[in-house]
């Protein structure tokens, strides 16, 4: 499309090669974009389950999940609403560790992440295994706040951030791909920021 | 009567990028710009949906932001109300540079969660520029002859900070100024006593505004007895 009359580049590009198309560097901000009421979940009653197509459906309490091997992510995150945030640090446990405990059935191809609010999002299993996804409770060395999904959220940093479900309570493995909350409401099924997979019908 | 089915094409699939031409531009207040646009190959929209507006620089750099639609689907033009944020890349451009006759890249309507289906009784608790979807809902309700279905409480610091206050008040909305006394109430945030009667008979609440406003509004509604599942939230803007 032709250029917009009178519009010129206003924002810096961000670190070279790290800003996906259509994104801008939000700098020190961390926008909160939530379609639901922020729940107040206390750690004592919180649990995380992995179930569906697994050999050993497993549930962890807060204390139990802390005993799993700690794993952290240092890198960038990208929101479909066009902000990106560079060099963030999250810590928690790798989704690989959780799946290892539950024993995924070889037929499982997708994962549906469920939040305690009823929010869901669907992910190909290939996008959450092999060191690509975490369940996290620390941001920048501090407990993750409720507005950002605390006590515990999913983190899938190579996909748009609506896939990183806040207030995570359950990971369900399935054969078929069942659209989650935003996916039913018009967003893309996969959400790769580098391919600009924002809405249904995008490549 | 409008049902889900008559809107079957709305948001059913994808919406492609198209262009919109600015037909009118005015400033309801110094920091608020209202654009009324003709959208090419326009799709029908539900009240509460938004468009993306994308600006493209000569070097192909782009900036896109979401803007809620203020107009009802029956309006031949699509209306936006944008708050000019200091150093805001897109809002400053729309306020200061864009002119009547200009073409902008647009995509929409988007968002099925925050839409109003035009028949469920609902309350809008909205703040500042967050009034925009409530305006679309109010206009749609009037168009369908069902103004009783949408109740609005609109909150702003002062009359200048609350776009569409007169139109909403004329439609029966409760107007709350947090820093400006009126004959009806002293300045201050809305109270549970004020919101509770508005909730009677409604099934859903739409909360829209800044992140801080949304946090306040959610808490107020839950304290007033509404279940969290009945509340839909749209947050505008960047917070820390
Ligand atoms: C669904 C939805 C609907 C919306 N509807 C509306 C609507 O109807 N009306 C409306 O006005 N808005 C609406 N918004 C908000 C809108 O999308 C934009 O976020 C808003 O217009 C700000 O965009 P901007 O490009 O002007 O500011 P941005 O450039 O995104 O900046 C945002 C703020 O951060 C500050 N900032 C950004 N970068 C820097 C920097 N490098 N240094 C210092 N400060 C910086 C800016 O000063 C500004 O105050 C909506 C948002 C959503 C998600």
From TrEMBL, chain A:
One family name in Pfam for this protein: Oxidored_molyb
Chain segments annotated as coiled-coil in the UniProt record: none
Family annotation (InterPro entries): OxRdtase_Mopterin-bd_dom (IPR000572), OxRdtase_Mopterin-bd_sf (IPR036374)
Region called Disordered, residue ranges: 1-24
Ranges of residues in domain Oxidoreductase molybdopterin-binding: 38-182
SUPFAM superfamilies in UniProt: Oxidoreductase molybdopterin-binding domain (SSF56524)
Protein name (Swiss-Prot/TrEMBL): Sulfite oxidase-like oxidoreductase
Organism, scientific name: Nocardioides euryhalodurans
Taxonomic path: Bacteria, Bacillati, Actinomycetota, Actinomycetes, Propionibacteriales
């Amino acid at each position: 499309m032709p250029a917009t009359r009178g519009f010129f580049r206003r924002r810096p590009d961000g670190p070279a090669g790290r800003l996906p198309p259509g994104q801008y560097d939000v700098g020190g901000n961390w926008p909160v974009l939530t379609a639901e009421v922020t729940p107040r979940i206390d750690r004592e009653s919180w649990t995380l389950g992995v179930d569906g197509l697994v050999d050993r459906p497993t549930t962890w309490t807060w204390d139990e999940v802390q005993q799993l091997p700690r794993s952290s992510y240092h890198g960038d995150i990208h929101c479909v609403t066009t902000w990106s945030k560079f060099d963030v640090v999250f810590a928690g446990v790798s989704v690989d560790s959780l799946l290892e405990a539950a024993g995924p059935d070889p037929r499982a191809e997708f994962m549906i992440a469920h939040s305690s609010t009823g929010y869901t999002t669907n992910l190909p299993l290939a996008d959450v295994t092999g060191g690509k996804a975490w369940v996290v409770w620390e941001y920048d060395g501090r407990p993750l706040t409720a507005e950002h999904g605390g006590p515990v959220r999913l983190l899938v940093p190579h996909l748009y951030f609506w896939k990183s479900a806040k207030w995570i309570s359950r990971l369900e493995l399935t054969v078929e791909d069942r659209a989650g909350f935003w996916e039913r409401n018009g967003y893309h099924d996969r959400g790769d920021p580098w391919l600009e997979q924002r809405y249904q019908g995008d490549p | 009567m409008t049902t889900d089915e008559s809107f079957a094409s709305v948001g059913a699939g994808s919406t492609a990028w198209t262009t919109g031409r600015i037909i009118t531009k005015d400033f309801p207040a110094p920091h608020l710009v209202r654009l009324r646009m003709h959208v090419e190959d326009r799709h029908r929209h539900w009240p509460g949906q938004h468009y993306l507006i994308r600006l493209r620089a000569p070097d192909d750099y782009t900036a896109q932001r979401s803007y809620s639609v203020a107009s009802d689907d029956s309006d031949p033009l699509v209306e936006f109300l944008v708050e000019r944020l200091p150093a805001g890349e897109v809002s400053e451009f729309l306020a200061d540079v864009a002119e009547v006759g200009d073409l902008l890249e647009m995509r929409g309507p988007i968002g099925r969660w925050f839409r109003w289906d035009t028949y469920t009784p609902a309350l809008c608790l909205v703040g500042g520029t967050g009034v925009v979807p409530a305006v679309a809902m109010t206009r749609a309700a009037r168009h369908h002859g069902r103004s009783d279905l949408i109740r609005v409480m609109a909150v702003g610091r002062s009359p200048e900070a609350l776009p569409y206050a007169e139109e909403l008040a004329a439609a029966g909305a409760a107007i709350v100024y947090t820093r400006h006394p009126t004959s009806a109430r002293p300045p201050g945030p809305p109270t549970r006593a004020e919101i509770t009667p508005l909730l009677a008979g409604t099934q859903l609440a739409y909360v829209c505004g800044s992140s801080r406003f949304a946090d306040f509004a959610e808490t107020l509604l839950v304290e007033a007895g509404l279940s969290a599942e009945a509340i839909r939230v749209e947050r505008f803007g960047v917070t820390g």
